[in-house]
Amino acid sequence: MEPLRRLDRAVACPLPLANVDTDQIIPARFMKQPRQAGYGGFLLHDLRFGPDGAALGLSLDDPARAGAGVLVARRNFGGGSSREAAVYALVDFGVRCVVAPSFGDIFASNAVNNGLLPAVVSEADAERLIAALEGGLDRLSVDLEACRIEGLPEPVSFSVDPVWRTKLLNGWDDLDLTLSHADAIRAWAEADAERRRWARPSSSC
Amino acid sequence: MPRTLVDKLWDQHAILTREDGETLIWIDRHFVHEGSHHAFAKLKSRGARVARPDLTFGVADHYVPTRGRAGPIPDEGVRRMVEQLTENTGLHGVHLFGLDDPRQGIVHVVGPEQGLTLPGLTVVCGDSHTSTHGAFGALAFGIGASEVAHVLTTQTLWQRKPKRMRISVEGPLTPGVGAKDIALTWIARLGADGAQGHAIEYAGSAVRALSMEGRLTLCNLSIEGGGRCGMVAPDETTLAYLRGRPYAPAGEAFERAAGDWLALAGDADAAFDREVSFRGDEIAPTVTWGTNPGDALPIDAAVPDPERIADPGRAAHARDALAYMDLRPGQPLTGIRIDRVFIGSCTNARIEDLRAAAAVLAGRTARVPGLVSPGSSLVKRQAEEEGLDRIFVEAGLDWVESGCSMCVGMNGDLLKPGERSASTTNRNFKGRQGPGSRTHLMSPAMAAAAAVAGHLADARPMLAGRL
């Protein structure tokens, strides 16, 4: 996974909506595709395009926001379904950071597993950022080492779970780390099989 | 130090904890479905094998057709999804409850029904409604594809311990009110993100009095309030449900296990990070009016007026939701006409749910078309043995096969754009039941009442003398 340290003057797009659930980030009908096909075109599809395919004028399709790397949304971004395809849609579109006052738990961990930063800011800071972006600001820098968003006259602090921050900064993949503990896992599982004999599915089936 | 249920479950599964607080936990059961193809592709790209096929179970549910199962699946994309699951589980020696299996159904119905879900287990699946399995006193939660691949490869997962939250409902529920109403009521009070970061334990006499079916519904909807997972401490109701289930321990082994399971209940003086409580008699039959499950109100209320909501963010959400749902502020909820009814899903398609809907529909006619999709093929068989299928069909509803169906619309069971449903499902998100669809969530009895009335309606008068 590609490390993420700093997004320098990335195109930033306001998404002044609360509760943007993962069904909206990627509608279910697009999820049959293999990832290689690229999921970027599905991002927020039904908020961006009407039934006839005509663009509805969502900020994301504003030519001034082309190539957006940062989205700023309202609270509870990514609630709902566990579909990691929602993160694929963002990442394949080119987004590396979503800024919001809160995130769905599963979405946030999926994001980190794909190198996408879920940056938590206060409600007031989210509103300030959205207002500035709607007022014509089009670029933000995101510094993950300093946990700071630059672009307004004063930098805005964000928080992110320190473990996730380390993972993102280094581009680490959990799997390699876990496999380094293979002996500990094996020993634990052997002892547990004695401790909780009922935990295995009954073999009578 | 006194421990809660989630503390005990956590401690029993912690393999190691890093200095930064991340814990590697052991996974006892892993369910995969058609949507798990991304994770299997990751394994393939690493040349990895499933570490514990004996603890991994496949269930075909998300994309399966609910009609015409005798022939091939007509939609090529859908057919490919089902075939891929068969190939991937076959390749890795994972047991599959496939389309042709008499035990096939929705993963969160099949797991409990087969005794694969037990108290004291960790249960994961690439589906957010995995919280359902917590009804047995299991630590059960949904994960994404990267995590699915991690569990397939290692049978473990890195997790940060969730905060502890207790939702108590004390005192009896009133007749015609059930688990779905409890869930929609707490989510409406706390918000769709109200329980973020928390493991919820449901407690109190009204929860204790729920059947396993009711507890499964309640835990299922934990994610709709943002909870990481939901759970109920195991008790005699839990044990009675599990005795004789195919994959559960049997005989003496069951009785030994039961001792361990009952000991999982939280210590009396254990502390929670957050406590919320309700009285049983303050919970009414509840329906949603907006575009997330927190937009819920008692059936005798009116559509809220955004101009009277003080918080600007909430007011903006309500305005947007009313525009999408095509509703007017102040309009009585009971006057909202519907086009279609759906009774099904991992939330409300167990036998008790079907009985409740049938109690309303018996001898009555639905004014709108609708679909009844049982939670599993075994539930379907049982319902047919009880004659419930005839009640649905005579009322004018379609009785179809089991799957996720119109809850998520992946198999092609969809509303048309602009259509409005009364639905026993879990999400009223924009477009959830198809592009432009409008969903009102409610209990099975309430969905049946809406079918009979042709508009949202209070089921209680229709249940008089029938409960």
From TrEMBL, chain A:
<dbReference type="GO" id="GO:0003861">
    <property type="term" value="F:3-isopropylmalate dehydratase activity"/>
</dbReference>
<dbReference type="GO" id="GO:0009098">
    <property type="term" value="P:L-leucine biosynthetic process"/>
</dbReference>
<comment type="subunit">
    <text>Heterodimer of LeuC and LeuD.</text>
</comment>
<keyword id="KW-0100">Branched-chain amino acid biosynthesis</keyword>
<feature type="domain" description="Aconitase A/isopropylmalate dehydratase small subunit swivel">
    <location>
        <begin position="14"/>
        <end position="122"/>
    </location>
</feature>
<keyword id="KW-0432">Leucine biosynthesis</keyword>
<comment type="pathway">
    <text>Amino-acid biosynthesis; L-leucine biosynthesis; L-leucine from 3-methyl-2-oxobutanoate: step 2/4.</text>
</comment>
<comment type="function">
    <text>Catalyzes the isomerization between 2-isopropylmalate and 3-isopropylmalate, via the formation of 2-isopropylmaleate.</text>
</comment>
<dbReference type="InterPro" id="IPR033940">
    <property type="entry name" value="IPMI_Swivel"/>
</dbReference>
<dbReference type="InterPro" id="IPR000573">
    <property type="entry name" value="AconitaseA/IPMdHydase_ssu_swvl"/>
</dbReference>
<comment type="similarity">
    <text>Belongs to the LeuD family. LeuD type 1 subfamily.</text>
</comment>
<keyword id="KW-0456">Lyase</keyword>
<dbReference type="Pfam" id="PF00694">
    <property type="entry name" value="Aconitase_C"/>
</dbReference>
<dbReference type="InterPro" id="IPR050075">
    <property type="entry name" value="LeuD"/>
</dbReference>
<dbReference type="GO" id="GO:0009316">
    <property type="term" value="C:3-isopropylmalate dehydratase complex"/>
</dbReference>
<dbReference type="InterPro" id="IPR015928">
    <property type="entry name" value="Aconitase/3IPM_dehydase_swvl"/>
</dbReference>
<dbReference type="InterPro" id="IPR004431">
    <property type="entry name" value="3-IsopropMal_deHydase_ssu"/>
</dbReference>
<protein>
    <recommendedName>
        <fullName>3-isopropylmalate dehydratase</fullName>
        <ecNumber>4.2.1.33</ecNumber>
    </recommendedName>
</protein>
<keyword id="KW-0028">Amino-acid biosynthesis</keyword>
TrEMBL record, chain B:
<feature type="binding site">
    <location>
        <position position="407"/>
    </location>
    <ligand>
        <name>[4Fe-4S] cluster</name>
    </ligand>
</feature>
<dbReference type="InterPro" id="IPR001030">
    <property type="entry name" value="Acoase/IPM_deHydtase_lsu_aba"/>
</dbReference>
<keyword id="KW-0028">Amino-acid biosynthesis</keyword>
<feature type="binding site">
    <location>
        <position position="404"/>
    </location>
    <ligand>
        <name>[4Fe-4S] cluster</name>
    </ligand>
</feature>
<comment type="subunit">
    <text>Heterodimer of LeuC and LeuD.</text>
</comment>
<dbReference type="GO" id="GO:0009098">
    <property type="term" value="P:L-leucine biosynthetic process"/>
</dbReference>
<keyword id="KW-0479">Metal-binding</keyword>
<dbReference type="InterPro" id="IPR033941">
    <property type="entry name" value="IPMI_cat"/>
</dbReference>
<keyword id="KW-0411">Iron-sulfur</keyword>
<comment type="pathway">
    <text>Amino-acid biosynthesis; L-leucine biosynthesis; L-leucine from 3-methyl-2-oxobutanoate: step 2/4.</text>
</comment>
<dbReference type="InterPro" id="IPR018136">
    <property type="entry name" value="Aconitase_4Fe-4S_BS"/>
</dbReference>
<feature type="region of interest" description="Disordered">
    <location>
        <begin position="418"/>
        <end position="440"/>
    </location>
</feature>
<keyword id="KW-0100">Branched-chain amino acid biosynthesis</keyword>
<protein>
    <recommendedName>
        <fullName>3-isopropylmalate dehydratase large subunit</fullName>
        <ecNumber>4.2.1.33</ecNumber>
    </recommendedName>
</protein>
<dbReference type="InterPro" id="IPR015931">
    <property type="entry name" value="Acnase/IPM_dHydase_lsu_aba_1/3"/>
</dbReference>
<feature type="binding site">
    <location>
        <position position="346"/>
    </location>
    <ligand>
        <name>[4Fe-4S] cluster</name>
    </ligand>
</feature>
<keyword id="KW-0432">Leucine biosynthesis</keyword>
<dbReference type="GO" id="GO:0046872">
    <property type="term" value="F:metal ion binding"/>
</dbReference>
<keyword id="KW-0456">Lyase</keyword>
<dbReference type="InterPro" id="IPR050067">
    <property type="entry name" value="IPM_dehydratase_rel_enz"/>
</dbReference>
<keyword id="KW-0408">Iron</keyword>
<dbReference type="GO" id="GO:0051539">
    <property type="term" value="F:4 iron, 4 sulfur cluster binding"/>
</dbReference>
